[in-house]
Design a protein that fits this description.
Layout (H helix, E strand, L loop, with lengths): L1 H25 L4 H8 L7 H13 L4 H15 L16 E8 L7 H10 L4 E5 L14 E5 L2 E5 L3 E10 L6 E12 L2 E9 L4 H7 E2 L3 E2 L5 H22 L5 E6 L7 H7 L3 E2 H5 L7 E3 L6 E3 L2 E5 L3 E8 L10 E7 L10
Parallel strand pairs: 1-2, 7-10
Antiparallel strand pairs: 1-16, 2-4, 3-4, 5-6, 6-7, 8-9, 10-14, 11-14, 12-13, 15-16
């Protein structure tokens, strides 16, 4: 019995490492890994429920591989972030940024108005925003919108550029990028909100109620993945032509361990990865009783900016939670313009 338990315990640790690396290096490259990338990760915890009591009863020394596996599962596998200790020195003004996908009409306008007011946000980015929003915009704020994307600012701002892309299976192109130049304290900066394509339809095609999976229908997920990579490259290339400090906020439909995310967005600092605490899940899915979270909404900052704090806000009735970040501006950055 002890030999079997030893084999299972060390085998579990080995399996956790393999699954973690498999998802990290193959997620959004190969469809099985993409299922893990966007699926529930808490399943990896289930063996611990059985193994830990058995190990404590039979051989406590085997706690080491189980605890090592638990550290990986609850840590990098599920996306735990632990902020660095100490207080970051402030070298300039601090901007509070708020982003949220408000899911068209599926949000509470009063709660969103309270969130904007009570969070003391300076710049707000909204995705899937209805053409005639019903929430209250603070007095004196400026507003720019294009194709379901909206930027609100307490500071003066000027409309910049947009980018449109197809989001299969939709027939018409959708706005994936909205950019403005904000005259913020410390100098002008480029503020962008994005809404990138989702792998939802491809994932739904592979899942089957009777057989659980239907690999023969993986073609849609493959084409969606290729399109998502292309769109991320397009939007990222547009932003690379901007001079000065850049903030990008919105619904990326990409977890940070996606190969697409690392390939196209790794040059920016991810606010929650740098200064968040916990898992920072912004969207929940799955059947009732088996829900799981994912962090696919992000605030990214470029050179000349520092992240001081990042956290999720309270529910405003959408299927996404808001994300709030405090961004420090490092002195006078000058004017933002295209190269």
């Amino acid at each position: 019995m002890r030999r079997i338990l030893s084999f299972v315990s060390w085998g579990y640790l080995f399996s956790v490492v393999v699954f973690w690396l498999f998802m990290f290096f193959a997620g959004d490259r190969w469809w099985p890994a993409t299922l893990f990338l966007f699926g529930p990760r808490w399943f990896a915890v289930l063996p611990l429920v059985v193994l830990i009591p058995l190990v404590l009863y039979k051989n406590a020394r085997l706690l080491f591989p189980l605890l090592a596996a638990a550290a990986i599962v609850f840590g990098p596998f599920m996306g735990l972030r632990i902020p660095a200790l100490g207080v970051r020195p402030l070298s300039g003004p601090v901007l509070r940024v708020l982003t949220c996908n408000i899911h068209s009409g599926s949000f509470n306008a009063q709660k969103l108005s309270l969130l904007i007011r009570d969070s003391r946000a300076d710049i707000v980015a909204l995705q899937e925003c209805p053409r005639n929003p019903s929430f209250e915009v603070p007095a004196g704020w400026q507003c720019v919108s294009e194709g379901g994307l909206m930027i609100l600012s307490r500071f003066p701002m000027k409309f910049g550029i947009t980018n449109q892309s197809f989001h299969p299976p939709h027939k018409w192109p959708r706005t994936s990028l909205l950019h403005c130049v904000v005259k913020a304290p410390g100098g002008d900066l480029s503020f962008c909100t994005v809404h990138l394509p989702s792998p939802r339809y491809g994932l739904q095609a592979i899942l089957d109620r009777k057989t659980l999976l239907s690999p023969s229908r993986r073609g849609l997920l493959g084409s969606e993945t290729s399109h998502r990579l292309q769109t991320s490259h397009e939007v990222s290339s547009v932003l690379s032509a901007l001079a000065g400090p850049v903030i990008v906020a919105g619904d990326f439909n990409l977890p940070v361990d996606s190969t697409i995310y690392r390939e196209t967005w790794s040059r920016y600092t991810n606010a929650f990865s740098a200064a968040g605490s916990g898992y920072g899940w912004t969207v929940w899915g799955g059947p009732r009783g088996f829900e799981f979270g994912a962090r696919i909404d992000h605030v990214l900052v470029g050179a000349g900016l520092d992240v001081l704090l990042c956290e999720t806000g309270f529910d405003v009735g959408s299927d996404h939670l808001p994300l709030i970040a405090d961004i420090g501006v490092k002195g006078n950055q000058g004017k933002c313009q295209k190269h």
